[in-house]
Amino acid sequence: MKRRVVVTGLGAITPVGNDVAAAWRALIAGTSGAAPITKFDASTFPVRFACEVKGFDPLQYMDRKEAKRADMYTQYAVAASVQAMADAGLASGTYDVNRTGVIVGSGIGGLKSFEEQHDIYRERGASKISPFFIPMFIADIAAGVVSMRFNARGPNYATVSACSTSAHAIGDAFRSIQYGDADIMITGGAEATVTPMAIGGFANMTALSERNDSPETASRPFDATRDGFVMGEGAGIVILEDLEHAQKRGARIYAEISGYRATGDAYHLTGQLPEHEGLQRAMRGALADARLLPGDIDYVNAHGTSTPLNDANEAKAISCVFGEAAHRLSISSTKSMTGHMLGAAGAVEFIASTLAIRDSVVPPTINHTTPDPECGDLDFTPNTATRREVRAALSNSAGFGGHNVTLAVQRFEE
Description:
By secondary structure, the chain is α/β, with parallel strands linked by helices. It is built from 13 helices and 14 strands. It is globular, with a radius of gyration of 20 Å. The chain starts with a strand and ends with a strand.
């Protein structure tokens, strides 16, 4: 019999706050994290703004030597993991290290380190490349560093599936506990891609909004005037735990994760099947896995990137899956505030879905001023948070390459 899995800890480094409480307050208030880029000189770029993490100090979470040898994405992952473990009340030595695992992904990994070391190679030669370059760059190293930080010796790996990365990580961690491979999983994702190559590459494929004169209004999911996503960065980490294990130690339980489904489009490098058919199968599969009906869901945290194709397709997918129940749903895209955090997006949005259940409030989709007929007449929670009971929620993610994930989370009941 599959074991029940609950959420007992949360941690986040985001463009709207460097801990869960601050980020959640900002999301409920409808605060945008977008601003002109400060991490490099973007004056010659077609896109000159992003949702950067602000005021982050890695020395709050690691010593100077460790920070120097870690790419920023790993620093974000460690910081969010430290927060989440503390939030879960899991002090060192209070858990079985052999039954505690880590699945932390990144869509790209240490891109900043790659760019910097490539510049060193071009300017000064191969002998000057840092001996720490490879472990700073590879996408699995955050999972490894987090496991060493907490001596976690259970399942340990990274997921890499573009914008579905951390949703896949949480889903796989959920399965690890369900099937008895671990009692505790530290899981989520991290990304640090406000770099010249990432901004330039995404801009040149016309994926990014070019509203340089008004960054805070640039991310506008489901709005008729949307013109692309805004790059974000940061990390989201959740602690998942076997229910019996959590109850035995008297843990505070946020919610129960009850459903997960991953699907593939097998269709296009960056596009989606019509009406997001792959995401439809993910939503239906997550509902079935959780033994929930469409009418049991009160909130969908949408993938909602603010790109013309994704938002119209996702809206149609939600309508197809939920049918008559679609019109009692609250839907929102927190990317309207955080930007698109790529490999960290799914985890941060899962955290938002969990807190919506805890606090009976749905965060808004900001900058939603012009309804798009292509997105239908669904309730996208425009501009202002909505107070309502949230018994259960779905969190959607979709990534380049045709990767789709839906996670189901619901109020914990004995």
